[in-house]
Amino acid sequence: MAEKVALVTGAGSGIGRAAALKLAEDGFAVGVLGHTPEENHETAKAIRENGGTALELVADVTSDDELQAAFDTLSAEHGRLDVVVANAGINGVWAPIDELAPDEFDKTITVNLRGTFLTIRAAVPHLKRAGGGSIVVISSINGTRTFTSPGATAYSATKAAQLAIVQQLAAELGQHRIRINAICPGTIDTEIDDNTDIRHPEKSGVRAEWPNGSVPLTDGKPGTSVQVANVIAFLASNQSDHITGSPIWVDGGQSLLR
Ligand code: NAP
């Protein structure tokens, strides 16, 4: 039986992979969940090579049955669950509102919002059984502080809704000693471009002049997945044991400019 157990969704690449590796380094047995088995395997392999414990869990976060089965498998293997990182997400289609097709809107909502809801819903009974725990939701600067990314209507809606869920549930889950917080990254160098389709940004971009540069702290350089993972690890740990219902922007100040 592991002493502490975490599950990370979308753990096959980018922020999720970095979070899985960091949590394993911090002593968690980690459920590496994603819908692409090869990607899960690569992350799990890296954890094991570092001396950590990983369980590969294939599930699509839009499927309640697949998620429930994955949480049950992890729980059966390690006997408990302490931390959940609801990270899986896509940029989807970013387009002017009158060019954004309803099924494109639905796809982003389904993966990012329904996926987050189903992940938390499946996690809570296990966290209650463990006597409490920590849920970390990966939102974004888009939809929380930034509303000027051309065509990002569907994406921003999901990221705003994730923060609403975090604040709503912080109160509801407090009695079970379950904390829930959001991380709102700015531009982070990951593989998310593979799940991004930006159409006609010139039509939906805001005609305004921003201050020079886009990330004050780094002269415009994007952040890294490891920088986000370090904050995830903080929210997963007892170091943050009086923090719940809070967003943390990890963006080098990017969202304060636009
Ligand atoms: P990423 O490298 O593309 O990682 C996303 C992961 O989620 C991938 O492993 C992907 O698997 C998985 N995934 C996608 N749809 C899934 C589904 N239906 N079921 C299960 N897994 C699924 O992107 P990332 O940048 O690390 O993004 C992680 C989170 O950070 C997202 O919620 C994103 O909105 C947020 N975020 C990112 C940035 C940024 O600049 N990168 C900024 C703010 C917020 P496949 O690759 O196999 O599809």
Give the integer mean of the pLDDT values. Answer: 96
State the domain count: 1
User: Can you give the helix content as a percent range?
Assistant: 40-55%
Distance between the termini: 47 Å
Q: Determine and state the CATH class.
A: Alpha Beta
Portion in beta strands:
15-25%
Structural overview:
Keywords: Oxidoreductase. This is 3-ketoacyl-ACP reductase. One of its GO terms (molecular function) is oxidoreductase activity. With 258 residues, the protein is an alpha/beta fold. It has one domain: Rossmann fold, CATH 3.40.50. It has helices at 14-25, 37-49, 64-78, 102-129, 153-174, 201-204, 225-236, 254-257; strands at 5-9, 29-34, 54-58, 83-86, 92-94, 133-138, 178-185, 188-189, 196-198, 223-224, 247-250. The strands form three sheets. The protein has a seven-stranded parallel β-sheet, with helices on both faces. Helix 1 (14-25) runs parallel beside helix 2, helix 1 (14-25) crosses helix 7 (225-236) and helix 3 (64-78) runs parallel beside helix 4. The longest helix has 28 residues, at 102-129. The chain is globular. 47% of the residues are buried. It binds NADP nicotinamide-adenine-dinucleotide phosphate (NAP). NADP nicotinamide-adenine-dinucleotide phosphate is lined by residues 9-10, 12-16, 34-36, 39, 60-62, 87-90, 111, 115, 138, 140, 185, 187-188, 190-192, 194-195.
Distinctive features:
binds NADP nicotinamide-adenine-dinucleotide phosphate, 258 residues, Rossmann fold, alpha/beta, two-stranded parallel sheet, 3-ketoacyl-ACP reductase, 8 helices, 7-stranded parallel sheet, oxidoreductase
